[in-house]
Amino acid sequence: xxxxxxxxxxxEKQLKSLDHSEQHYFxxxxxHGIHEEMLKDEVRTRSYMNAxxxxxxxxxxxxxxxxxxxxxxxxxxxxxxxxxxxxGVDMSTIIFxxxxxxxxxxxxxxxxxxxxxxxxxxxxxxxxxxxxxEWMGYFLLYESMLDTVLYARxxxxxxxxxxxxxxxxxxxxGIEDGDYKEEKIGFWDNVYGFDYSPLKExxxxxxxxxTVEMKAxxxxxxxVLTLDLYKVTTADLAFSxxxxxxxxxxxxxxxxxxxxxIEFTAxxxxxxxxxxxxxxxxxxxxxxxxxxxVLTVEQGEKVECALHNRPNDKNKRDLDIKVEYRLxxxxxxxxxxxxxxxxxx
Amino acid sequence: xxxxxxxxxxxxxxxxxxxxxxxxxxxxxDEDDQEQVxxxxxxxxxxxxxxxxxxxxxxxxxxxxxxxxxxxxxxxFLGCVRLINLVRGSVKEGAALPEQITAGHLADDKLLxxxxxxxxxxxxxxxxxxxxKAGQQGxxxxxxxxxxAGGEGPVVDELLQKNARLQAELEQLAQQFxxxxxxxxxxxxxxxxVDEESDKxxxxxxxxATPAPKKKDDSAYYFESYDHNIHETMIKDAVRTNAYRxxxxxxxxxxxxxxxxxxxxxxxxxxxxxxxxxxARVIAVDNSAILDKAxxxxxxxxxxxIITCVRGRIEDVTLPVDxxxxxxxEWMGYCLLYEAxxxxxxxxxxxYLKPDGLxxxxxxxxxxxxVSDAEYVxxxxxxxxxxxxxxxxxxxxxxxxxxxxxxxPKEAVCGEAHAFRMLDLHTAKVEDLVFExxxxxxxxxxxxxxxxxxxxxxxxxxxxxxxxxxxxxxAKEWAAGGRERVAFTTGPYDTATxxxxxxxxxxxxxxxxxxxxxxKKLEGKIRYAIQxxxxxxxxxxxxxxxxxxxxxxxxxxxx
Lengths: 345, 559
Fold this sequence. Notes:
The complex is a heterodimer of chains A (345) and B (559). In chain A, helix 4 runs parallel beside helix 6. With 345 residues, chain A is α/β, with parallel strands linked by helices. Chain A contains 10 helices and 15 strands. Chain B has 559 residues and is an alpha+beta fold. Chain B folds into 3 domains: 15-187, no CATH class; 220-330, 3-Layer(aba) Sandwich (Rossmann fold); 363-558, Hnrnp arginine n-methyltransferase1 (Distorted Sandwich). Chain B has helices at residues 16-31, 51-62, 66-73, 77-93, 120-123, 141-150, 154-198, 205-208, 218-224, 228-235, 238-250, 252-255, 269-276, 290-300, 342-352, 374-380, 475-479, and strands at residues 39-40, 47-48, 259-263, 281-286, 307-311, 324-329, 353-360, 363-371, 404-406, 418-424, 435-442, 452-461, 486-489, 501-505, 521-531, 534-546, 552-558. In chain B, strands 8, 9, 10, 12, 13 and 14 form a 6-stranded antiparallel β-sheet that branches. A 5-stranded parallel β-sheet of chain B has the order 5-4-3-6-7, with helices on both faces. A 4-stranded antiparallel β-sheet of chain B has the order 11-15-16-17. The longest helix of chain B is centred in the first third of the chain and has 45 residues, at 154-198. The two termini of chain B are 24 Å apart. Chain A: GO terms for molecular function: histone methyltransferase activity; protein-arginine N-methyltransferase activity. Chain A: This is S-adenosyl-L-methionine-dependent methyltransferase. Chain A: Residues 64-161 form the Methyltransferase domain. Chain A: Keywords: Methyltransferase, S-adenosyl-L-methionine, Transferase. Chain A: It holds the Pfam family Methyltransf_25.
């Protein structure tokens, strides 16, 4: 017990020596509220459980690496699925809880938990057969752990090794969101009778993580980024994608909404889940980007858009996002176009 | 703030002793013989009397040419410090050095932290030979030694002085970075907390935050932490903002022609209410960066001739007036006293408020009630015992030691609420904020078992300082008392506010079960204390027991 306490002290010291933004990132995961939220996200946890536990033939006798293991739930699924050994790695001090949890569940001999950065730790196995990880952040990439997964892949995954999940796709659609835009953005025009416009700009530049109802979706969804985890590199996470959004009905577009789908294609029967507005709630919700203009669209019309995303220079877990949009119509009164800059931080 | 990322670990900011070391050592050596320096080898335990000799040793024995690397990369003083620490760090950890060290390897600011304490090599850096311009990169240690031998006397003095100056600068920078780090860290924590709040996660980020003992200046974080998300939450808390608006607008004669001080003005909304109500002058004080937005807001609304925005701690700023007629402040924290802004209001009251001046709000009372909510306990405590087939009770740590900020349904309250303390803000003192008060309740027929206690506060806006608010009066009763008065509650019987309520769960693994039932009476004490090492945190202790019988106690932290 004393040894463990020392471990925690060492871990905390280690955390303190990190760059502050990194420190915040890892510290925020120490709070157990976030783990509770993630575990209680049934879509997420159940998808992982099914992908792992229903594929015992894939996991049997394999060496498995769980990147960012948190409370250790995925590691325990893998152990239950027959893995020869599971290594769970997490920088956050939550790993000490994970250790207790693994112990009370009698899996200590099957699971080794290592506190530290993936890039710095010493692995008990030179190579692993399977990497499992729940690395996704809001808008897939915000505060995401993907770079760490890719590092682990390049350094530790066997040539024919598997990644769970191995495919991620970001989708975008246009939404009618007049009431909420008014509440979130228009609010600052008149605050108890005062003009608060200085705070409006800030509000516009921050993508809003919230749930969007399916009926608000005005256009067909379009994929803007697909990641194949076997091939993707960190450089691919800065991307630009032109795309069209086709209106499904006559309506207004106040904002774009983005979400992502996740697939486990290595499974016997592929398992996927979506975080979109058309399906069950997840803790990722959706991400809404309010536009400066309101677009008035008729059914079948196309809005030409482009989305540019790159990690912030100063804090790579923050994102700088630019959305360009243009509506070309015969009706000059409805023509509109512009570009908005957003920062997820 | 975005550019101000900390470049250094707090560990690297040495104690003041150490600082003196840094600053004095070269000076002392001025008088001493230069030969007293002990330079430890980069790669082994050997000690040398000067840096060039040591570097020559490293080159001969370990094939590492420090000067060549320095010159190839064009390293300045800090660059050399990084290089030294990179090498020493690698050697210490038994890690191999990169085959060719590049600027990228030196980018990590952790490398500014000395691996070796009082590393003499760092002190001697300026004594090393400078790169030869004419392509003679990596001039050997031989040359270095010669250069140094030839440069004793006044040159050495000069170099040592320069060295000392650079050390001091480095130290100062490290200190600055640490301060930024603390501030930024807290901002981010808070922001994260706000996100979680909007997620309606029951576990309050504030309450569940890791209680890292932060002995330094808590207030720095506190002020920097007020980003606009929190202001949005506060301004959109209609219970709160409406109460101030209603009181100020309904009492325009009180404000007409008066001088008002707004402490912790945030976006300036309360100041603007006062200005619209006819105040002659409003001084809006806040120590956070939000004050810039307040200034803009004031300007956009054409009130800059009435409202003066002042940035700083109320204890430190110089106000443009000696005395004010009214102090307006929204200082209330979780469970009323968390974040401890009230002493600042008392300070301002004692220093600036005229003897007959008014405080808005004027009174605040604190309430406690017993809670029985099997469903809440099932979802938040028992849930961890079986998570997808696994036992995760390890995740319950803190559930009984930290207050949980949450909005409880009134059905969860299983007995009369008890007002345990009423503060008349015109007369209350800092000492009144640390106390132990008795409390009692009669259990209702809703009681199934006793799961914990709920704590909240009510806030009252009296029109004169003579008015007395009786301790046991709720906001609703007081507001309805004859004429139109303004008061609000943060309790479970009315619209929820951003303050939510404090839920204190009884640790049933330790507590003795008591026989509860409708009509039974509970009594005990509630103690508020400041948490050690965290001036804005609270420690709250509740004792309880059946009337006339033994009581038991439990303490919770709010930080």
